[in-house]
Every structure is written in C-alpha cells, then in structure tokens.
C-alpha cells in the first residue's frame, strides 16, 4: 500500500511516501512559519524522487493537531484537496501519536510520552503504548502531565520515552517524583511516522477535522 503523508501542524514541515514497510522518499524541514509555501514543492520532490505518480497513491495521511492554528489548517486543506481529486481515503493522525511512536522506536521502550510546549505554561500532552494511544490529547500544565505519566508508569518495570519540545522539562519533573524516563531526539512530528501509523488505521468514516485544544487567539471584531 502506497501512503503519502504530510505534517505542518507544529514547528516543522515534512512529507513522506511509503510502500508498506519501505520508505520511498522522505523530507523534513524545521520551520516556525512558511509551511504553506514549502508543502507543495516538498510533496512534488518526494514524488519525483520515488518516481511515483500521484494517481498511484493508495492512501493519504495528515496530522490533525494539536498544533498551531494556521499550521494545522495548511496540511489539512492540502490533503483534503488531494482526497477529493484522487478519491482515496485520508487518515488523520495526531501530532502527539506521531511523536510518541517515533520516540518508542528510537529508544526501544514500550511507552512513549509526547509533551510539546503550548506556551502560557502549558503543554500538549499524549501518552502512547506500542499498540495505541493510552490517553486522549490534552492541554495541561507540565506538573499535571508529569503526574499523568507517573500514574501510567508506576507498577511497571519500564521507563517512558519522551518526545516534543517539553521533553527535557518533563524529564526533570519526572525525576523529581521518582519516575525514570529517557529523552529521545524527537522534537517535532514527522510525516514518516504519520504514514506508518496510517498504514494500520481502519478506513475512515469521516474527513479528518482539526484538533484544537485551545481557542484561536484571533477574534473577529465586535460591532459597538
């Protein structure tokens, strides 16, 4: 199964094309802005590298969030357009699931925690096992996220792999409460893991929607 996946939801832009277990092409660029301009050329590049026509793709995948308001919409809008044009399934994968899966793969640990700085003293938080997400994506203060990890880890003989821009801070917070953790190198979602997670996902019953854990900062003006 050939799967084309993209991510623009946080501080990177990435695209990947896989065929079952084989990686055909992959790009990732760390960036705070400019996702909309970078995405289409990146997708074109990986299709050219793999020598695969867009019409040969069997399934699409995209990160739904949590992430930045604009970033989430860039990837979703792009892939929804491809879904309509190609008439193939589009799978939504959370940024936290993608980061946790990558961290577990890198460290070999069976539990992965994604903790990404959401500003205002909060983090986007999600915990995953090798089989599935163990928690729903949440917006929490760091100490509460550390406590949630501790609840999952206590009573097991394993450590937890940490990913995201708040991974180092989470590692220190967990150490303070006696929980062992390992900080991975994963700081941003990667479309490669979006594609890999989408490979085993059931056919979607609806079009993926953006996952917002916080209302947009922008507000429409109110008439006096």
Number of helices: 6
Assembly category:
single chain
Strand line-up in the sheet with most strands: 3-2-1-4-5
Number of strands: 10
What low-confidence regions span 5 or more consecutive residues with pLDDT below 50?
Answer: 218-224
Amount of helix:
25-40%
Strand content: 25-35%
Rg, Cα atoms, Å: 18 Å
Shape descriptor reads globular
Mean pLDDT: 93
Termini Cα gap = 56 Å
Structural class: alpha/beta
Encode the helix/strand succession as letters.
Answer: EEEHEHEHEEEHEHEH
Structure report:
By secondary structure, the protein is of the alpha/beta class. Helix content is 35%, strand content 26%. The strands form 2 sheets. It has a 5-stranded mixed sheet, with helices on both faces. Helix 1 crosses helix 2 (69-86). The longest helix is centred in the middle third of the chain and has 18 residues, at 69-86. It is globular. It starts with a strand and ends in a 25-residue tail after the last helix.
Brief write-up:
With 224 residues, the protein is an alpha/beta fold. Helix content is 35%, strand content 26%. The chain is built from 6 helices and 10 strands; from the N terminus they run βββαβαβαβββαβαβα.
């Amino acid at each position: 199964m050939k799967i084309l996946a993209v991510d623009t939801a946080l501080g990177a832009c990435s695209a990947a094309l896989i065929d079952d277990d084989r990686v055909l092409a992959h790009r990732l660029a760390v960036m705070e802005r400019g996702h909309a301009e970078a995405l289409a050329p990146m997708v074109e590049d990986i299709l050219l590298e793999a020598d695969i026509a867009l019409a040969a793709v069997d399934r699409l995948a995209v990160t739904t969030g949590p992430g930045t308001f604009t970033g989430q919409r860039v990837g979703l809008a792009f892939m929804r357009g491809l879904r309509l044009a190609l008439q193939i399934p589009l799978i939504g994968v959370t940024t936290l699931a993608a980061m946790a899966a990558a961290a577990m793969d890198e460290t070999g640990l069976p539990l992965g925690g994604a903790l990404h700085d959401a500003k205002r003293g909060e983090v986007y938080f999600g915990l995953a096992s090798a089989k599935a997400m163990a928690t729903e994506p949440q917006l929490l203060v760091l100490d509460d996220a550390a406590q949630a990890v501790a609840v999952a880890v206590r009573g097991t003989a394993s450590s937890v792999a940490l990913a995201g821009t708040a991974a180092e801070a989470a590692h220190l917070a967990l150490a303070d409460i006696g929980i062992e953790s390992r900080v991975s190198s994963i700081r941003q979602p990667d479309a490669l893991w979006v594609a890999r997670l989408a490979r085993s996902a059931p056919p979607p019953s609806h079009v993926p929607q953006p996952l917002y854990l916080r209302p947009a900062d922008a507000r429409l003006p109110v008439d006096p």
